[in-house]
Design brief:
This is Lipoprotein. Keywords: Signal. This protein has about 50 residues and is an all-alpha fold. Helices cover about 35% and strands about 0% of the residues. The longest helix is centred in the N-terminal third of the chain and has 17 residues, at about 1-20. The termini are far apart. About 0% of the residues are buried.
């Protein structure tokens, strides 16, 4: 059962990213650019709440 859920989630992820146009974010549809704040993110910026 766990494998089927994993395969389903991967298929959904691939489906969402495959529909994105170049230069746009797949979910929001916003334009990508060099001034995007996500360009400056690092793994250290991702903190689990409560830890």
């Amino acid at each position: 059962m766990k494998g089927i859920v994993t395969i389903g989630l991967l298929a959904a992820l691939l489906g969402l990213t495959a529909c994105a146009e170049t230069g746009q974010y797949p979910v929001g549809g916003d334009q990508c650019g060099p001034s995007d704040p996500v360009q400056k993110l690092d793994a250290a910026d991702c903190v689990v709440p409560g830890s």
